[in-house]
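Lab notebook: predicted structure, single chain.

Context: the supervisor wants predicted structures on file for every construct in the current expression panel, including those that have not yet been purified. This is the next one on the list. No modifications to the sequence; it matches the entry in the shared construct table.
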Amino acid sequence: MTATHDIQGDLRSITAGSVFNCGLFRENETAVCWGDETGSGVISLIPTNLRFRTISTSGFHVCGVLMASASRVLYWGRSLSLDKGKMDSIPTDSIISIMGGWFHSCGIRARDKSVSCWGFKLDTSTPVLANIRVLALAAGDYFTCGVLASAA
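Prediction complete. Output recorded below exactly as produced.
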């Protein structure tokens, strides 16, 4: 049976993970998540009193671009507990947009609109192309696509 959740406050955005959802409150830009957190810890790991520009969920994790700290990325949930030998680090660059895949995420860098991806990677993963600029990203379970800035 599908559960219903009554969120107290107005949300300005919403995003769905595999078995949970998250949103950002309009008034204070903090995150709220609800649903099933079995195996991910997403709901109990929600950072409190942090404000976000945007968040994105997928699989068993949440990524958010912080309002403060020069648009740094904050990441919580299951993905970072995977085999550390097959993980790319979260970027320290300022990020303006973020998109989550199953066990990975990608973001658009503020300085040059290039793409940075991190999280679990397979041996057959295609690296991010160098010297490209994008306007938007979309992610699936094991892939991420972008709209090239030169194509717009």
